[in-house]
């Protein structure tokens, strides 16, 4: 008789292939229209954050954010602490997320949208929201003893009104107060009609 008991049977896998709600993230089955909109949001001695561009889909837009970190002469211990903060690891013992990287938008009609999802308050994430949604998805990152980089995709659903969009961000932990840049993304309503599905069915 074996010392270890047999593993319990694996549960049946759900064969349902239901699509993700479209307000969660940009559709992976669609080829968007890319709008060049490079703007630096903030730059300090060690940290830089920029908007690289905007992807316009049929029912929303995705802003591509680039974040960069350079050592620039820091001692190793300080560098390790800085990279931890840059990769958004909470300091040991800290329970205050107030200094984290935050981003929001002001749309052409004055609507303010932040990355604080209403679902954090206990709403049903499967129920279609009756307001704009802005969700951030980190696209990985990495580096070495000299530099780190990471990227974020910000999905705004549904399509915003035509006109400029203000991008507002702050990162108090890394010494960046509230900053704002204005993007001219053009007529997103027209651009959205040119987004194409990868597959016809």
Structural notes for this entry:
It is a single chain. The protein has helices at about 75-85, 190, and strands at about 30, 35-45, 45-55, 60-70, 100-105, 110-115, 135-145, 145-155, 165-170, 175-185, 195. Strand 2 and strand 3 (about 45-55) form a beta hairpin. The model has no long low-confidence stretch (mean pLDDT about 85). It is globular, with a radius of gyration of 20 Å. The chain is built from two helices and eleven strands, in the order E-E-E-E-H-E-E-E-E-E-E-H-E. It has about 200 residues and is mainly beta. The longest helix is centred in the middle third of the chain and has 11 residues, at about 75-85. The N and C termini lie far apart (about 55 Å). Helices cover about 10% and strands about 40% of the residues. It has a single domain (about 35-120, about 130-195), classed as Sandwich (Immunoglobulin-like), CATH 2.60.40. The strands form three sheets. A five-stranded antiparallel β-sheet has the order 2-3-4-8-7.
Provide the gyration radius in Å. 20 Å
Mean pLDDT: 84
> Any guess at the CATH architecture?
Sandwich
The helix/strand order is EEEEHEEEEEEHE
Spatial separation of the terminal alpha carbons: 54 Å
- Under CATH, the topology can be stated as Immunoglobulin-like
Helix content: under 10%
Number of strands: 11
């Amino acid at each position: 008789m074996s010392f270890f008991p047999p593993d319990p049977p694996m549960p049946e896998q759900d064969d349902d292939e239901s699509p993700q709600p479209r307000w969660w993230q940009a559709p992976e089955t669609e080829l968007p229209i890319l709008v060049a909109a490079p703007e630096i949001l903030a730059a300090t001695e060690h940290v830089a954050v920029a908007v690289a561009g905007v992807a316009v889909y049929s029912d929303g837009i995705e802003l591509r954010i680039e974040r960069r970190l350079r050592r620039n002469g820091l001692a190793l211990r300080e560098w390790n602490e800085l990279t931890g903060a840059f990769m958004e690891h909470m300091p040991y013992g800290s329970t205050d997320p107030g200094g984290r990287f935050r981003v929001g938008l002001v749309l052409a009609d004055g609507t303010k949208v932040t990355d604080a999802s209403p679902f954090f308050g206990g709403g049903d994430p499967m129920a279609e929201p009756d307001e704009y949604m802005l969700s951030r998805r980190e696209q990985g990152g990495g580096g070495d003893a000299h530099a780190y980089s990471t990227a974020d995709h910000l999905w705004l659903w549904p399509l915003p009104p035509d006109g400029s969009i203000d991008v507002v961000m702050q990162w108090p932990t890394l010494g960046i107060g509230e900053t704002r840049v204005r993007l001219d993304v053009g007529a997103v309503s027209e651009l959205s009609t040119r987004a194409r599905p990868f597959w016809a069915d």
